[in-house]
């Protein structure tokens, strides 16, 4: 692949796309850090920056996902050429060899340890597996007592086959061997564990005439290993029990929410009565302080109950296609007055993006982020905006506030954690807001991220699964837009429905080509038809469904194509499959106006330049 002098992707062949899991061609023009991650510890990003800065070639191996990649970097006049080679198979083989070597080393270490603290059993056997010499202090077995006898005379019938088979393998192959054996000596009556080594003895003619060997009793080591395993299982059981107890606590708090709030509500009412009666008296100041304490109690109770309800699973998202502009514009209007009171400039960049989420839970999470931004920003501005990534939408709340040091960027999401509030000033909140945001984000199938610099500001990003964009303010009618210049590949196996759709699309001036199966659609593309849009039924005859057919067609074209899936299946997993793949979806029966509106949305471009300028740092204050 090739990068320019800003480390933005100029070209990537199919092998590079596959190795780095890129989305071609949409990845062209993006920075390599956006494609593979912003983490400073990322080996590729670090080596690329060093090679560009020093104009020196570099070569290293690193793990990317489940693959090991050999990376060769060559500086050129206007950037870098990067050559990638998948060396996963070799790396796995080396790891396997290393693991095997480690296992052998561990066995030998155990052998040496056992040798230092346990008596050693040493012996010679002839070709017929009869002892010619033996010493075993554990069972008081000496040379004279064992000579001419075999293992069957000293170990019980249940366990003796293991040692006999081990000895026979050495005699028959003529090669040394080592094994871990579990044996029950007749004189001891209990299972003992041994590491046994043996090697063949040869005559002058090279024939195997017997073997010599030694065994170390490692019973105590094996028992310790078994005890550790039992302890590990006990620890896992204790952890599971603790999690169940925590869940029970959460369920209790969530279920008791009403009862817990009732006395607090009563206190507020009683305080109001006192306030009117004691106004102007010496007790008015006391009443005011009681009110401040009650407000803190209410805030703490609300936050704790919110967390408990999430943990207990009582808050269940109602997933739908949520247009973000109405939610964000309303929040921006609401908080703009709060910001102006602190002489802050709060801006919102309009968007047409949509997410597959729950509007009320999104609003709850964003309120916490916006309130944090206002609370911790002394001067400057706050910007709210969105941008889209493959399958995801990122909602940013950026400020020019106090910022968060690197060592605190993870702990700020923990319960009751606040930066620069050692005195626990309730005016700065309780330290539960970001905890709630993270749990809500995960409940919605997303995540929250933080990018911050001390004294410069912070950007909290709420990432949520994307849905087809909906512009609720402008809905073009069928009469206002023409499909001229647009080519639609229609994949539908119902002949009557296919003919009807084809007729309607042609009436709207679209150029169409129809197929009944995914394979037939691929043949149309291979014969030269290059669609600008695809409409596919989900359930098709043949091996491919509609989503698979779209992906195969994009692979044949070498580029992504806006696609609309039509289906009568309303199962949530079906909807999620389409939306997570970045596809639009309509459910049968489909009204002509709805179909036309979707087609218009698919060919319309979106302008997010203002948000991009801000986050690149190009926008002036």
Task: Describe the protein's architecture and organization.
The protein is an alpha+beta fold and 621 residues long. It has five domains: 2-86, Beta-Lactamase (2-Layer Sandwich); 118-217, 2-Layer Sandwich (Beta-Lactamase); 239-311, Orthogonal Bundle (Helix Hairpins), CATH 1.10.287; 320-469, 2-Layer Sandwich (Heat Shock Protein 90); 487-603, Rossmann fold (3-Layer(aba) Sandwich). It has 18 helices and 22 strands. The chain has helices spanning 14-20, 32-36, 43-54, 88-117, 143-146, 160-173, 219-255, 257-278, 284-311, 324-341, 359-375, 433-443, 495-507, 518-526, 546-557, 572-580, 592-603, 609-616, and strands spanning 2-4, 9-11, 58-64, 67-76, 79-86, 120-126, 131-135, 177-183, 192-202, 208-217, 320-323, 345-348, 354-357, 381-389, 392-399, 447-453, 457-467, 487-491, 511-515, 533-537, 563-567, 584-587. Helix 15 links the parallel strand 20 and strand 21. Helix 9 (284-311) runs parallel beside helix 12 (433-443), helix 10 packs parallel to helix 11 (359-375) and helix 14 packs parallel to helix 15 (546-557). Residues 421-431, 469-481 and 605-621 have low confidence and may be disordered.
Please sum up the structure shown.
The protein is α+β, with helices and mostly antiparallel strands and 621 residues long.
Map the helices and strands.
Blueprint: E1 2-4, E2 9-11, H1 14-20, H2 32-36, H3 43-54, E3 58-64, E4 67-76, E5 79-86, H4 88-117, E6 120-126, E7 131-135, H5 143-146, H6 160-173, E8 177-183, E9 192-202, E10 208-217, H7 219-255, H8 257-278, H9 284-311, E11 320-323, H10 324-341, E12 345-348, E13 354-357, H11 359-375, E14 381-389, E15 392-399, H12 433-443, E16 447-453, E17 457-467, E18 487-491, H13 495-507, E19 511-515, H14 518-526, E20 533-537, H15 546-557, E21 563-567, H16 572-580, E22 584-587, H17 592-603, H18 609-616
Parallel strand pairs: 12-14, 18-19, 18-20, 20-21, 21-22
Antiparallel strand pairs: 1-2, 1-5, 3-4, 4-5, 6-7, 6-10, 8-9, 9-10, 11-13, 13-17, 14-15, 15-17, 16-17
């Amino acid at each position: 692949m090739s990068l320019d002098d800003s480390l933005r992707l100029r070209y990537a062949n199919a092998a590079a796309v596959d190795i780095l899991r890129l989305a071609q061609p949409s990845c062209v023009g993006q920075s390599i850090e956006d494609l593979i991650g912003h983490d400073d510890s990322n080996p590729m990003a670090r080596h690329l920056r060093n090679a560009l800065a020093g104009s020196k070639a570099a070569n290293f191996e690193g793990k990317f996902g489940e693959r090991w990649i050999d990376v060769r970097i060559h500086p050129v006049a206007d950037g870098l050429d990067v050559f990638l080679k998948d060396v996963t198979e070799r790396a796995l083989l080396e790891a396997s060899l290393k693991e095997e070597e480690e296992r052998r080393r561990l066995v030998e270490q155990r052998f040496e340890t056992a040798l230092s603290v346990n008596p050693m059993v040493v012996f010679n056997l002839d070709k017929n597996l009869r002892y010619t010499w033996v010493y075993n202090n554990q069972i008081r077995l000496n040379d004279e007592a064992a000579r001419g006898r075999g293992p069957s005379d000293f170990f019980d019938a249940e366990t003796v086959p293991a040692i006999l088979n081990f000895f026979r393998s050495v005699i028959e192959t003529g090669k040394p061997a080592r094994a871990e054996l579990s044996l029950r000596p007749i004189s001891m009556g209990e299972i003992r564990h041994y590491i046994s080594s043996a090697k063949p003895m040869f005559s002058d003619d090279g024939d195997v005439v017997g073997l010599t060997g030694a065994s170390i009793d490692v019973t105590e080591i094996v028992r310790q290993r078994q005890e550790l395993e039992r302890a590990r299982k006990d620890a896992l059981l204790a952890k599971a029990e603790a999690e169940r107890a925590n869940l029970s606590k959460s369920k209790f708090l969530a279920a008791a929410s009403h009862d817990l709030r009732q006395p607090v509500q009563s206190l507020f009412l009683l305080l109001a009565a006192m306030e009117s009666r004691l106004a102007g008296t010496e007790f008015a100041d006391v009443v005011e302080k009681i009110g401040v304490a009650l407000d803190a109690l209410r805030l703490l109770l609300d936050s704790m109950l919110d967390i408990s309800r999430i943990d207990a699973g009582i808050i269940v998202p109602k997933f739908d296609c949520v247009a973000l502009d109405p939610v964000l514009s309303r929040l921006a209007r609401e908080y703009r007055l709060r910001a102006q009171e602190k002489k802050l400039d709060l801006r919102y960049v309009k968007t047409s993006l949509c997410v597959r989420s729950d509007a009320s839970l999104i609003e709850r999470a964003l309120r916490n982020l916006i309130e944090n931004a206002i609370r911790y920003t002394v001067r400057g501005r706050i910007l709210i905006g969105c941008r889209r990534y493959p399958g995801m939408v990122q909602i940013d709340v950026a400020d020019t506030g106090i910022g968060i040091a690197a060592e605190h960027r993870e702990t700020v999401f923990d319960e009751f954690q606040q930066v620069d509030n050692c005195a626990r000033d309730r005016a700065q909140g309780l330290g539960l807001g970001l905890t709630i945001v993270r749990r809500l984000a995960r409940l919605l199938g997303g995540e929250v991220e933080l990018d911050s610099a001390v004294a410069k500001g912070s950007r909290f990003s709420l990432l949520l699964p994307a849905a087809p964009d909906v512009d609720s303010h402008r809905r073009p009618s069928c009469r206002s837009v023409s499909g001229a210049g647009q080519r639609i590949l229609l994949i539908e196996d119902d002949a009557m429905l296919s003919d009807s759709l084809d007729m309607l699309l042609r009436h709207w001036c679209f150029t169409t080509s129809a197929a009944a199966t995914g394979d037939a659609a691929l043949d149309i593309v291979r014969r030269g038809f290059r669609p600008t849009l695809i409409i596919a039924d989900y359930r098709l005859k043949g091996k491919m469904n509609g989503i698979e057919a779209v992906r195969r067609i994009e692979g044949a074209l070498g580029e992504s194509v806006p696609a609309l899936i039509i289906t009568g299946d309303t199962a949530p997993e079906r909807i999620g499959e389409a939306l997570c793949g970045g596809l639009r979806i309509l459910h049968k029966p489909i009204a002509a106006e709805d179909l036309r509106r979707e087609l218009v949305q698919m060919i319309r471009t979106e302008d997010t330049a203002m948000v991009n300028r801000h986050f690149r740092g190009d926008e002036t204050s």
